[in-house]
Amino acid sequence: MITVKTILHKKKKGEKIVCLTAYDYITARxxxxxxxxxxLVGDSAANVFAGEKTTLPITMEEMLYHTKVVARGVKNSxxxxxxxxxxxxxxxxxxxxxxxxxxxxxxxxxxxxxxxPMIPTIKRLVELxxxxxxxxxxxxxxxxxxxxxxxxxxxxxxxxxMMEDAKALEAAGCFSIVLEKIPSNLAKNISMAIGIPTxxxxxxxxxxGQVLVLYDILGLFExxxxxxxxxYVDFAEQMRRAVGQYKEEVEKGTFPAAEHSVD
Length: 263
Ligand code: KIV
What we know:
about 260 residues; alpha/beta; TIM Barrel; 2 domains; 8-stranded parallel β-barrel; 11 helices; about 45% helix; about 15% strand; binds 3-methyl-2-oxobutanoic acid
């Protein structure tokens, strides 16, 4: 079984960390079978699973449900649950309670977005035995502050602030940090400056690991594909073809055939 310690050890050994999102039992089982190290129950479920424009509307109850069903499909991978908007920002007590609920339904740790302002919360969670993954750069819960899905950490000042944030997250006890949509050189510098693994998404090849949204790499989510997401297969097209064939056969009366009858 992969643990937080395994993930930390991978950085020491110079081994890349593989992370993907999952929101349901079937895909979690496939990712687990394939040896994906970290399964992130991302709040991107709001976008790619539920069709919302941002990650802001997804609730604790919805994220708990996704985490619970993912956990049923996993034997080895490390399950990290994304804390949804407003589940950890209001008070440390609320963050502890909500993070704890994720652990109760099968997560091994939680991810939360933000740098220095989140330090007291992260310290408390870690103190209480709840592993925390940080998230810097383009943090989608701050979409309205950024005014769009723009690359972060571009100027010297912003880059320096992100470096400080990364060091502060490490000092607070995070076991890894997601770096989203930042210049690869900055991601490289951060990865070299801290002892915990960086997991990049749109942050270049120098991070200690990579994460992508599963539906993007499968070609299932067609509303929008970020440039950094490689599409490995076109599942949406394959699904259309299969469903179309089924429809045609039902309409023509060629399905069910004799072999599909139960008598
Ligand atoms: O919600 C999510 O899927 C994420 C990853 C893209 C890092 O936060």
